[in-house]
Amino acid sequence: MDQTTTQPRCRLTLASHKCACPTRLNAASLLSTSPCQPQGIKGNLDCVTNSVFVLWDATPGADSYTVTAVDGEDYLTNCTTSTNTTCEVKGLACGALYNFSVTAKNMQCESQPSAPAVPCMEPDVTSITPSL
């Protein structure tokens, strides 16, 4: 791993071992890799705006992140942010259960999605069913 940059890189040196003649090593090359999966996913539900604020730990080498929300009916919504580690997912359906995942991206490729997370509701929020 190259320690001079925050982007994950591998140092690669090639040499041939098939020939009886010794070969010269080529100059080392740096290859960029995809960022790792984001970790530490947390979410806070805002019942007034039907949105969720999703937070996660920074991933070395990530240029941007995408948060994806999927409900049981395959409704999909997302938000994208630069290097911020928070994002507000808007337009969620009231009463639906969503799973959220975060994907880190750089110029070369993107990470695998994080493990799904379910947002937490504030402890003082209650549901009231009106009586007719």
Over all CA atoms, what is the radius of gyration?
22 Å
Give the biggest sheet. Answer: 3 strands, antiparallel
Q: What is the oligomeric state here?
A: single chain
Q: Give start-end ranges of low-pLDDT stretches.
A: 1-5, 123-132
CATH topology tier name of the domain at 42-105: Immunoglobulin-like
Structural class of the secondary structure composition? mainly beta
CATH architecture of the domain at 42-105: Sandwich
CATH homologous superfamily placement of the domain at 42-105: Immunoglobulins
> Using DSSP, what is the number of strands?
8
Query: Averaging pLDDT over every residue, what do you get?
Result: 75
Strand arrangement in the largest pleated sheet: 3-4-7
Helix content: under 10%
Total helical elements: 0
Q: Which shape, going by the Cα principal axes?
A: elongated
How much beta, percentage-wise? 25-35%
Distance between the first and last residues' Cα: 65 Å
Return the string of H and E elements. EEEEEEEE
CATH classification, class level of the domain at 42-105 = Mainly Beta
Pfam family, one: fn3
InterPro entries: FN3_dom (IPR003961), FN3_sf (IPR036116), Ig-like_fold (IPR013783)
Protein name: Fibronectin type-III domain-containing protein
Domain Fibronectin type-III: 37-124
